[in-house]
Design a protein that fits this description.
The chain is α/β, with parallel strands linked by helices. It has three domains: 5-214, Rossmann fold; 231-384, Transcription Regulator spoIIAA; 385-592. Helices cover 44% and strands 12% of the residues. The chain has a six-stranded parallel sheet with strand order 2-1-3-4-5-6, with helices on both faces. A three-stranded parallel sheet has the order 7-10-11, with helices on one face. Helix 12 (296-312) packs across helix 13 (333-342) and helix 16 runs parallel beside helix 20 (467-484). The longest helix has 18 residues, at 467-484. The two termini are 48 Å apart. The mean pLDDT is 92.
Length: 592
């Protein structure tokens, strides 16, 4: 018997937990009296890699990269030209859809990394299963094809389809090409019910203002094979406690996507965790919120409820999420951190971004280095682990601001050795995105940019911060982290993205910033890294060396903590050498 909707998640996503968006939509449809099923086509790609003894990271890059094959090729070879299993993946997807036989296929697009696979699936369904209607939604539906810098994509799609609609993001583009019947923009919980009720508009807008977030049914993971995912240490399920953000950081588009911050009561979130714990036996949960402690009242209620549960039960619940540092004077100090620990909080992700107060003030992060120092010291006292996110080269970042970040890395070395800072991300140097607060103020602050690119920008008052200099600073940060053996996360994909950007857009980079300058390469004066030459200037090398000589145990303690763990943590990277050589040598790249 056919079902009303099959909701599928698309490559490329992380495999550390089941994707929650299809499971949320399924719960909403079932609550409204419709039949629904979910399937994870991203996990399917990973399983095919395993069956064929192929490298997952190599294959996933083919699915997300901006490179295309010949426009004369079939759908698959045009979109994913170098994959060894793309044909097999498409055939298996069609087989699953045909077996389920839904009236509607719902394609969940998490980010631009899922654009190529979503376009491919829609083309194949239109060709092989034309009776099935398609609706597309998700956050990735509102971004440009293959990311903000999509100039090469436009040319290829124009060649393939005969034209490229001006200023069309991915969802409207799919509508324009007739590859989907409807798109859902914004929040899908209520919008998908409107679709099933027979709404006529081909673009359905889900507004957070119209949703009672506490009335959304619990997420339904029953179709997922939960034990197949690549968990770190133990299974984890994702739930959402709030939407939007109470902050308006200048580089972030969250306030555009969710103009209003909405949240559930803390007790309601905790009760969903307890429900899923009983249903699936999973003890760890990931809160997908932009920040878990946006509402201080709701957050205290949440950790209080979970702390009580954990103190009364042997089957304790743990959770991770994105956490924002607030002013030190506004905290509840020991009582608060003791309760936070008892609630099962671990691996809290904090967007520190920079070690410079001046940079963070311009970002409107609303906390100082002193506030972060105070927070991390309390985390250390109560053994609450955290993950710190950084990115270099915000437009106002001076060399001194950059040195402030280096200084923070050195000062926080002790917290990596104690395990309080579980890992850090060095990030991609700042990329400039439309509709963010910084985008809206760019003319006022003298930020010059080239159309259609997120990397071709420069602040009039900080002209040293070219794209070449951004690469240099990112590599210096990595050299510092490698010398200290700071546990880095997602380092390889970040470096790979920078390297491919340099190769693919070298011509436009050199036209905007001028020819690549000659950078100085220094010997590793104190033998603190595995490299024979460094971009790290001698004064930073000396600072790092003095610190290591005075704290000789920190490196070994850090390495011991991460020995044998199943995680993406790196202490070195082969791609670092490739990117450094690309920056230093005189060869020019040609766009692929």
């Amino acid at each position: 018997m056919p079902i009303d909707m099959l909701v599928v998640s698309m490559p490329v996503l992380d495999l550390q937990y089941p994707p929650s968006s299809p499971a949320v939509i399924k719960g909403c449809l079932k609550s409204a009296g419709y039949t629904a099923q979910t399937s994870d086509f991203n996990l399917l790609l990973w399983e095919l890699c395993k069956e064929n003894n192929l490298n997952w990271h190599t294959e996933q890059y083919q699915f997300e990269s901006p490179y295309f094959g010949s426009t004369d090729s079939d759908n698959i070879d045009f979109l994913i030209k170098n994959s060894l299993i793309a044909h097999q993946w498409a055939d298996r997807c069609i087989e699953i859809i045909n077996d389920v036989n839904p009236t509607w296929l719902g394609i969940s697009v998490f980010s631009y990394k899922s654009h190529k696979s979503s376009l491919l699936l829609a083309l194949e369904v239109r060709k092989r299963l034309p009776h099935i209607k398609i609706v597309l939604g998700g956050r990735g539906a509102s971004s440009y094809f293959a990311g903000p810098d999509h100039s090469q994509v436009k040319l290829k799609l124009k060649e393939r389809f005969g034209y490229y609609p001006i200023s069309k993001t991915f969802g409207p583009l799919m509508l324009e090409y007739g590859l989907v019947d409807h798109i859902i923009e914004g929040d899908g919980e209520q919008a998908v019910i409107e679709l099933m009720h027979g709404v006529q508009e081909d673009r359905i807008v889900g507004k957070i203002e119209d949703i009672d977030i506490e009335a959304i049914p619990y997420v339904d993971y029953n179709d997922y094979e939960i034990n197949k995912y690549q968990y770190i240490n133990e299974p984890i399920l994702a739930i959402t406690g709030s939407k939007g953000c109470v902050r308006k950081c200048t580089f972030c588009d969250i306030p555009v996507l969710w103009p209003k911050f909405k949240f559930r009561s803390g007790d309601h979130i905790a009760q969903e965790m307890m429900h899923l714990n009983k249903q699936h036996g999973v003890k760890k949960f990931y809160l997908t919120d932009s920040l878990v402690n946006g509402s201080s009242t709701a957050f205290v209620d949440f950790i209080k409820t979970l702390a009580k549960h954990n103190n009364e039960n042997n089957d304790k619940i743990t959770w991770v999420g994105q956490y924002i540092t607030k002013r030190a004077s506004n905290r509840q100090q020991d009582e608060y951190y003791r309760m936070l620990k008892d609630s099962g909080a671990e691996g809290l992700t904090i967007g520190v971004e920079s070690g410079s107060d001046l940079v963070r003030t311009h970002m409107k992060k609303n906390f100082s280095t002193h506030d972060v120092d105070t927070e991390i010291a309390y985390f250390d006292k109560y053994q609450i682990t955290c993950v710190l996110l950084f990115f270099s080269c915000y437009p106002t970042e001076t060399w001194q601001d950059f040195l402030d970040t280096v200084d923070m890395f050195i000062r926080y070395h002790k917290y990596c050795a104690s395990g309080t800072i579980y890992k850090i991300t060095l990030g991609i140097p700042y990329t400039h995105h439309a509709q963010t607060p910084l985008w809206n103020m760019q003319d006022d602050i003298g930020l010059v940019r080239a159309d259609g690119s997120d990397i071709l920008w420069l602040l009039d008052s900080n002209k040293d911060l070219t794209f070449y200099e951004r690469i240099r600073r990112r590599l210096i940060l990595q050299e510092v982290a490698v010398a200290l053996k700071l546990p880095m996360s997602r380092n390889d994909p970040e470096i790979n993205q920078i390297l491919n950007t340099l190769k693919l857009h070298y011509k436009s980079i050199s036209e905007f910033f001028g020819p690549k300058p000659s950078f100085t390469s220094y010997p590793d004066l104190y033998n603190t890294t595995p490299y024979t030459s460094l971009l790290m200037p001698p004064e930073i090398q000396e600072q790092v060396s003095i610190h290591l000589n005075n704290n000789q145990d920190l490196v070994n303690r850090t390495l011991q903590l991460h020995s044998g763990l199943n995680d993406d943590i790196k202490f070195d990277s082969n791609l670092y050498t490739e990117l450094k050589e690309a920056l230093l040598d005189g060869n020019e790249f040609t766009a692929q």
